[in-house]
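HOLO CASE FILE
Compound: fe (iii) ion
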Amino acid sequence: MTTLLDRIGSLVTNDPSYGDGSPLGRLTDAALVVDAGGSVVWAGESRNAPAADAYVDVSGRCVIPGFVDSHAHLVFAGDRSAEFAARMSGQPYEAGGIRTTVRHTRAATDEALEANLVRLLAEMRRQGTTTVEVKSGYGLTARDESRALALAARHCDETTYLGAHIVPAEYEDDPAGYVDLVSGPMLEACRTYARWIDVFCETGAFDRDASRAVLDAGVRSGLGARVHANQLGHGPGVQLACEAGAASADHCTFLDDADVAALAGSQTVATLLPGVEFSTRSPYPDARRLLAAGATVALASDCNPGSCFTSSMPFCIALAVREMGMTPDEALWSATAGGAAALRRTDVGRLTPGARADLVVLDAPSHVHLAYRPGVPLVADVWKSGHRPS
Ligand code: NIG
Ligand code: FE
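Model generated. Tokens follow.
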């Protein structure tokens, strides 16, 4: 059983061997064939399209790969809107707010945590996100971190162990003891549910040595590394991520020339999270500097109850274009193929044969409208693994 999506006004494949040779590999008057197994089997100009078992008329609209949101914290309970309101009247963002969510999360039932996770994943899907990475990090005990990851693993294939999010209150006087817990028994309880390990390397969270110890323990257990790096000020996070061979260094707000050079010379993707700067009223990272140096840049939401409670990749694209100097083409690439690179995935973030048929039909003639029409719900249809949810 194959389905032909025909009369696509603008098709973004993210494969430069298609179309005009630009990184987006964009075709006009295009068609796409997907099979029952959930893969793309053909992409090209409409006039060359092969016959298929079923036909869908896209009516001249734009089709893009589903967004790959490579950074989100979705297993939590509680509301921090009062903290947001206080920030908007001049209070600074402080990493310590994480402990508020930890208290609520520990007190929540499995059912409540799962219901919130499912609600947020559905909210993301409606906005075009078809792959999501979900972190733990609001449990901070072996039991609470492993239950967060077990819940996440039921609903997504990209799960990240973030026991090293912050030192919890009960370890305030023994941060080294907490690092031992995170790298030992907590890791042991979590590793079967996680693909990745992450650490918040920042003043007030984990310093360079503690972060390295946590990452090394995770990598020894078979997890891939990622790092929350250089978010609130300049620090060792980006260098550490590159040295440890992390798939991604996330935030990258405060970088010096050596950090930019390290990212450009490594396989570590610079993942920018402009919703955080929006929601904390902070300076945005310099995307142009990273791109000019040759670094791979991803965009992600960082959806979490504290620093940024948006689940919208179109909003992040609009911010990246307006506030970080990215072109609409670069921003779309970073929110799709860039996110896939940050998760070391080659099966998502593109629409060419062999890729998963995860795609978005936009109520717009081109992807440029994602930034040109900020805040407008342009996502008309979302296909996941070749299926259009009814
Ligand atoms: O990515 N940086 C650390 N963690 C989250 C914020 C979590 C929170 O404030 O609850 C982030 O911004
Ligand atoms: Fe984060």
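CASE NOTES: The mean pLDDT is 97. The pocket of fe (iii) ion (ligand 2) is lined by residues 71, 73, 228, 302, 304 (CB under 6 Å).
CLOSED: yes
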